[in-house]
Design brief:
Elements: H1 7-19, H2 23-35, H3 44-60, H4 63-77, H5 82-112, H6 125-134, H7 138-165, H8 172-188, H9 192-211, H10 224-244, H11 247-264, H12 270-286, H13 290-307, H14 313-328, H15 341-359, H16 374-383, H17 392-402, H18 410-422, E1 425-427, E2 436-438, H19 443-459, E3 464-466, H20 467-473, H21 479-491, E4 497-500, E5 505-508, H22 511-536, H23 545-551, H24 553-642, H25 658-742, H26 746-864, H27 876-879, H28 904-912, H29 936-940
Antiparallel strand pairs: 1-2, 3-5, 4-5
């Protein structure tokens, strides 16, 4: 490490090293001087040294050296002359930018220069080999070799300057200027990665500034000038992010602006808020978040209408139309339908966060938060009078989509309105943040909304509809796109649609009818099913309560016993579970106690280690202070030894602090410097008198020597002039002799020249004639090729048209055949339906007739005999038509009692007594034939269960 008595010596030494080409040694010498503790008092020489230092750092691309030097120089200049640091930093950035631009221009010039030896060759062999080996083009190689290192150094320069100026309240303007230049660098050269890092760096600087706001020399954000600088930086960051297409970084910049305003509790000016909401509209549109996009447009409209006095009526109409179209572009269903609870919570938090950004409340209150929705947005548009400012086309579109009920021709009426709206828009003359408004960007979203509205209205009118009819009613999209839109709407619970591609039908469900009338329909269905069950299974008569209780007593006792056993087992299981839980709780408590004990021991060990580390740090700091004090005292003693004064300052031992000793040493150095300047001034004065005396004595001697020198030089000039004239005469005579000698060959030279010229003219004429013949041949051949190609193209087009015509004829024939088959199938199905309907009516008539006959028979039988208590038990022979065996005791029974079985022979006796015997009924309730033997046809006939049953009979049975 070189030691210099004065800073000027170091600068002089560095210049000498630069002259001989040793720039590294010169940089190291200046670096040692700047980082030395001997030169901590600012002086003008240090500024010149820093200028030279940064020039060397830029020339050699030593960013680390530059950062160390600027940090040390900041320490020197912070309290004395901060403007010097500003000048050095500006010079540093200017040099880095200039060298980067120079390298870029050199790369472009190298790429555009014509540096080839053979103009007919495309590339040199070595260029081809290099391109095949490296795999990159010439411009890529030149950029990598020339431009990229300087761009890296320029980026490192910006980072270094921002790091140095981040906590300096006196250089806030320079910090903002550096940030703006870094943004422009990223924008000019499309450096997206560096832009993200730069935004993160600035964001961290603001966080640290807010965290350590009580430190000295920190910027005060409550000051209007500081706040304006920081806001301008954030808005420039927002603009560059949108121009680079970094929408996520642009949204983070919006959050940075909002966080900065919440930090200082102050709302920015209206001009800045216009830029804020203008960029918000772009961000939300690129993220396909139409709801927030519409709210941002509404805020922008309110600001422009309130604060922009130069806003023309046309511009206001365009902005209002954009607000209404953005609101209509919002999907009419809930996007979060069907999401999980965690997703709903996250969406709620995100919506509240975005609502704060759009509302821009620097002190948001929880009770004032309102969730954003499409319905509230549309009502707000009407209440704020936005609809009165829009164009007539937008009003018509709003009326069609929100108020009209046109289930068949809604899309057809919307289409011409959208075509007119797509042509509206243009540049705005008085809105700087939104220079241009194009309403055509909302047309796709509005077409989707018109499709949803049409499907919603059609579902309220029709249950099924043909897919072809839907495609005709919606001219915007193909049916595949319509199907995707419908699937999304069904998933969001907006529509209920089923599509059958085999039948070409679409089933629609009216969600309003299903919600309101579903309970009534279910009630009617339940009553009908209950009646049908009662007719099929009629309820039996209830027995006595005591008999029922006695008959079910054993079952009840068994059930009660099982229930008690189950309850006992449940109680036992609960006891075991309780014991297990108690054991588990004891084990958990023991584990917790051990963990707490372990944490206590670890905390004690950490406390002991921290105390030991603190004592060690204090000891190291004390040793450092003692060493610095000793160095200061040694410096003071050395200064006293150099001093010639007899009276020396008395050291007070431990009472003398380092600051006092440094002040004494600096005062001593200042006194020595002043004495040295006085001595130099006295010596210069004496040297001035001596020099003047010497010049007065030497003046006459110099004059006489000058006159003598003039005479000598005049004689010498005359002599040299005569010699030159003689030499010129000799050269002229020799030239004349040479001319006479060469004049004899002049005729031969002329003959040779004519011969060469004639031969070359003949050769040129021959080559010109051959070239004309070759060109005519080429023209003829190309003409023939074009003719052949034209004929081939005509033939191919004719063939394609013929094939296409044949294909269309074949498709038409197939289509006619399909329509004919469909028509025949429909006619055949109609005939079959008619035949089935006639059969059903005939069966209903037969069943109704049988029912009437059966009721008539039952009515007659109940009028003659009382109904038996128990149904008769019929054996297998009776079921097959044979007579049951008659017991002997029954023959002598005079009159059957009520509830007894009456055989056939007794019924004849009763008939003789004057009573009409009732017809015998089987277990199905049907009457038998006179001979009590049902035929084979009656045995095969299934029973009828009343009018509600429907029986299908074969055609042969009917």
């Amino acid at each position: 490490m070189a030691t210099f008595a004065k800073p000027e010596n170091a600068l002089k030494r560095a210049e000498e090293l630069i002259t001989v080409g040793q720039k590294q040694e010169a940089l190291q010498a200046l670096h040692d001087l700047i980082t030395s503790r001997r030169y901590r008092a600012w002086q003008k020489t240090l500024e010149r040294i820093m200028f030279k230092y940064v020039e060397l750092c830029v020339d050699m691309r030593r960013g680390r050296f530059a950062k160390d030097g600027l940090i040390q120089y900041r320490i020197v200049c912070q309290q004395v002359n901060i403007n010097s640091l500003e000048e050095v930093i500006k010079h540093f950035m200017h040099l880095a930018t200039e060298r980067a631009e120079l390298a870029r221009n050199q790369a472009q010039a190298l790429e555009e220069a014509l540096d080839v030896e053979d103009l007919e060759a495309d590339k040199r062999p070595e260029d081809l080999m290099l391109s095949y080996v490296s795999g990159e083009k010439g411009k890529d190689r030149s950029d990598r070799e020339l431009v990229t290192p300087w761009f890296k150094f320029l980026w490192e320069t910006y980072r270094t300057v921002l790091e140095i100026l981040r906590n300096n309240s006196r250089l806030e303007a320079l910090y903002a200027m550096t940030a703006h230049r870094a943004f422009q660098f990223c924008k000019q050269y499309k450096r997206t990665t560096e832009f993200r890092r730069l935004c993160e760096i600035i964001r961290n600087h603001l966080a640290n500034l807010n965290k350590y706001r009580d430190q000295r020399d920190r910027p005060d954000l409550s000051a209007p000038e500081s706040l304006q600088l920081y806001l301008d930086t954030r808005f420039e960051q927002l603009k560059v992010a949108t121009e680079l297409g970094l929408w996520q970084e642009a949204f983070r910049s919006i959050e940075d602006i909002y966080g900065l305003m919440c930090m200082v509790k102050k709302t920015p000016k209206a001009s800045l808020m216009v830029v804020y909401y203008g960029k918000l509209t772009e961000i939300f549109w690129m993220s396909s978040n139409h709801l927030y996009h519409a709210y941002a447009w509404l805020k922008l409209f309110s600001l422009q209408k309130s604060f922009n006095k130069n806003l023309s009526q046309k511009d206001l109409q365009l902005i209002a139309s954009s607000v209404v179209l953005a609101a209509l572009s919002v999907p009419p269903y809930d996007q979060s339908y069907g999401a999980s609870h965690l997703e709903l919570e996250n969406e709620k938090e995100r919506s509240l966060r975005v609502a704060n950004l759009i509302g821009f409340e620097v002190e948001p209150k929880a009770e004032n938060r309102v969730a954003l929705s499409r319905s509230s947005l549309l009502s707000e548009l009407v209440s704020k009078g936005v609809m009165s400012c829009v164009t007539q086309e937008v009003k018509d579109l709003y009326h069609l989509l929100e108020n009209e009920f046109l289930p068949l021709d809604l899309a057809l009426k919307v289409q011409p309105v959208l075509s007119k709206i797509s042509k509206l828009g243009g540049k705005l003359s008085s809105v700087s943040s939104v220079p241009e408004v194009q309403l055509s960007q909302y047309v796709p979203a509005l077409e989707k909304l018109a499709t949803l509205r049409l499907l919603q209205q059609v579902s309220q009118v029709y249950q099924t509809i043909q897919i072809d009819n839907i495609s005709k009613m919606i001219p915007f999209f193909d049916f595949t796109v319509i199907e995707k839109i419908s699937v999304d709407a069904v998933r969001r619970n907006f529509l209920a649609i089923k599509v059958d591609h085999m039948k070409g039908l679409s089933s629609l469900v009216n969600r309003v009818l299903r919600r309101k009338d579903s309970g009534i329909i279910c009630l009617f269905l339940a009553e009908s099913l209950s009646k049908a069950r009662t007719m099929i299974y009629p309820p039996a008569k209830k027995a006595a309560k005591l008999g029922e209780a006695l008959s079910n007593l054993a079952e009840i006792v068994e059930k009660e016993h099982k229930r008690l056993l189950a309850r006992k087992s449940i109680i036992e299981k609960r006891k075991e579970e309780q014991e297990r839980l108690l054991l588990e709780m004891e084990r958990v408590e023991e584990t917790k106690r051990r963990d707490v004990q372990k944490m206590t021991e670890e905390a004690e060990q950490k406390r002991i280690a921290a105390e030991y580390e603190q004592r060690r740090n204090q000891r190291i700091l004390k040793e450092i202070e003692d060493r610095e004090l000793e160095e200061a005292q040694a410096l003071l003693h050395e200064a006293e030894k150099r001093s010639k004064r007899k009276k020396k300052p008395v050291l007070e031992g431990e009472k003398m602090t380092k600051k006092v000793i440094m002040e004494l040493a600096l005062n001593e150095q200042l006194r020595e410097r002043q004495e040295m300047e006085k001595k130099l001034l006295k010596f210069a004065k004496s040297m001035d008198h001596l020099e003047r005396a010497k010049r007065e004595e030497a003046a006459p001697l110099i004059e006489s020597a000058f006159k003598q020198r003039l005479a000598e030089e005049a004689a010498l000039h005359e002599r040299e002039q005569q010699q030159e004239i003689e030499l010129s005469r000799q050269r002229h005579a020799g030239d004349l002799e040479e001319k006479r000698r060469l004049a004899r060959m002049l005729e031969n030279k002329r003959i040779l020249q004519e011969k060469v010229v004639s031969s070359r003219e003949a050769e040129f004429t021959r080559m010109k004639r051959e070239r004309q013949e070759r060109i005519s041949q080429i023209i003829q051949s190309r003409k023939q090729e074009r003719e052949a190609r034209r004929k081939m193209i005509f033939f191919l087009r004719s063939e394609e048209e013929r094939q296409k015509r044949l294909q269309e004829e074949e498709e038409a024939r197939k289509r006619e055949e399909a329509e004919r088959r469909k028509k025949e199938e429909a006619e055949r199905q109609a005939k079959l339906d008619e035949i089935a309907e006639k059969q059903r009516r005939r069966m209903l008539e037969l069943e109704e007739k049988e029912k009437r006959e059966r009721e008539e028979i039952l009515r007659k039988s109940t009028a003659v005999l009382p109904k038996p208590a128990e149904p008769p038990t019929l054996g297998r022979p009776a079921e097959l038509g044979g007579a049951a065996p008659i017991p002997a005791a029954a023959a002598t029974a005079p009159t059957p009692g009520p509830g007894k079985y009456v055989p056939k022979h007794l019924r004849t006796k009763m008939d003789g007594a004057g009573q009409a015997p009732p017809p015998e009924t089987d277990k199905w309730g049907g009457g038998s034939k006179p001979d009590d033997r049902p035929s084979w046809r009656d045995e095969r006939k299934p029973p009828s269960f009343g009018s509600g049953s429907r029986t299908s009979w074969p055609a042969s049975r009917r």
